Amino acid sequence: MAAQYRRILLKLGGESLAGSDGTGIDPQRAMEVAAKVKQLRDRDVEVAIVIGAGNLWRGVIGLEYGMDRATADQMGMIATVMNALALRDALEQQGMVTRVQTAIEMRQIAEPYIRLRAIRHLEKGYVVVMGGGTGNPYFTTDTAGALRAIEIHAEVLVKATKVDGVYDSDPMQNPNARRFEHLTYMQALNMQIKVMDATAITTCMDNDLPIQVVNLWDKDALVKLVMGEPIGTLIGH
Description:
Layout: E1 7-12, H1 27-41, E2 46-51, H2 59-64, H3 69-93, E3 98-102, E4 111-112, H4 115-123, E5 127-131, H5 141-151, E6 156-161, E7 166-167, E8 179-180, E9 182-184, H6 185-191, H7 198-206, E10 211-215, H8 221-226, E11 233-236
Parallel strand pairs: 1-2, 1-6, 2-5, 3-4, 3-5, 6-10, 9-11
Antiparallel strand pairs: 7-8, 10-11
Helix pairs in contact: 1-3, 5-7, 6-7
């Protein structure tokens, strides 16, 4: 059975690479994430990845001490490149040809982000890990994920997190919380959902890009998604 999606943009939080305390880079965790990506590549799904840096740096901490917002965000963008390099290494160890591209030029360690080059890599079957956010302060890596997904003509933006969808209340605190199978973009915006920021959702809405929220750590969740099985929460029209 062929996969429903040919090309996806996988948005990962930096915490996906973190150790048990939620900080730093755990090489074993990186290998676990890489194994999930390999399941997609084994089904000929083209995979681009945008990764955050919450495991290494949160700009809000700097702001609490009076740091300039642009500086705090630039530090975060650089931290995403560290995560991208760690993930590339894990992907390569599992046999996947991988390229890291960055929105902030760092030619000694990664390619600059060039849209057509990224598309060409994907067409060759390479995994492309995109670091550096959008390259601009004041924008989240969720927004970077939405922007890159649209630029490379991904068919869906997959927000892989630690919850299995969008709920009407915090499922960690309310055992009776109800999960939504589908939300419109406007419903998600009006609810002010925590799983993705409003700028990212609006960008997807304006460009008809569906968002699929899944639990990264659910067994075979990503495979089920690309094979068209109902899972998580779909945000769209």
